[in-house]
Target: Lipase
Amino acid sequence: MASTILLNLIPIFLLCITIAQGRKTLHTSHEFSASSLVSTKDGICKTMVETQGYTCEEHKVTTQDGFILSLQRLPAGRSGERANKPPVVVQHGLFSDAVIWLFNSPEESLGFILADSGFDVWLFNGRGTKYSTMHTSLTPNDKAYWDWSWDELASYDLPASVEYVYNYTGQKMHYAGHSQGTLMAFAALSQGQLLDMLRSVALLSPIAHMNQISSIGTKLAADLFIANDIYWLGIREFNPNVDVGAKFLEGICNTLHMNCANLMSIFTGPNCCINSSRIDVYLDHEPQPTSTKNLIHFSQMIRTGNIAKYDYVDQAQNVQHYGQRVPPTYDLTKIPNELPLFLGYGGKDMLADVKDVKVLLNDLQDHDANKLVEVFNEDYAHIDFIMGVTAKQIVYDPMIDFFNGY
Ligand SMILES: *[C@@H]1O[C@H](CO)[C@@H](O)[C@H](O)[C@H]1NC(C)=O
Ligand SMILES: *[C@@H]1O[C@H](CO)[C@@H](O)[C@H](O)[C@H]1NC(C)=O
Model:
């Protein structure tokens, strides 16, 4: 029973945790060192990777706006044989971090599966998450630390991490992203970034257009988020686990007169294939915090269906930031037609709704047909793509075949 409730809370956590992250992150201690290859006693390598018998390296990269991000590298498979294939970089979604790719057994988790398939695996951690809390001049206690949305994840975090791997390995790489990690890629690629460093791009639960999402919980959250005073109250970090974040979620559940034990389904769809006996392990670590501004940005997308930069609403502020009164849009038709793309999406996904994915596919209608692979599974919802016990057969194996082609 307790597990069921916790399981059901995960989607909400995934949606809401970002606000809370700042507080938690203060407790982690990651020394910034001049060398980018670092050793961290309590890092992801030590706690999640080496414990499974794999080698692992901790790396750090500093973004142009001063955030110090951690990356974990799995340079070999479990047998110890070093990677003989190009790097694959893996980008997590909202309310999570790189740990999400290592939660299940090595036979089920994408991070380990890629390493055992011969790839040089690099896991990214976005700003504000547990292992990427450092900044050259700010701390998570500063409001300015949380002054970003996915625009900055796409224009700073992603290029810094990809360029770091490119510089370090001297090789072009494959990209795999989930949810917000797909939106970051769409935004960057549509602006011509990263292209010279990537071989191919895999997008799981692709998030682009968002106005047909079928989750009424998420829709209500989006409406409340725009109307609600969380940001204007001065709360810049959203943590679903405490105070404002927790009350916010409780309010949604009460307003909808829904069974609060089903929050995960309410927000992400009925995940078919998550191992319920592992929920406690997930909740030891997730969800991770995000910025309030990021959630407002998502709410704007849900309202409009547009993929545009953050709207300050105030025209003068938009002019100040963008030189125009309305935020510039990201034009996905600009993604080069010959870039190999893999799209994995599910019939029960309430965030990357099939109807919205069709609008995305329409944006990509001129894409070279032999460079666009679609894997659709009718039963999969949002979280199945990262934690599903069947994800290897259904998603990861076809994705690896796709990578092997480039
Ligand atoms: C990658 O190398 C280039 C050229 O040396 C350098 O300008 C850039 O800062 C490096 N990027 C990262 C993220 O280390
Ligand atoms: C589910 O998790 C439990 C506990 O970690 C594990 O023993 C079991 O093998 C897992 N089942 C599947 C299908 O992965």
The longest helix spans residues 150-169. Residues 108, 275, 277-278, 389 surround 2-acetamido-2-deoxy-beta-D-glucopyranose (ligand 2) (CB under 6 Å).
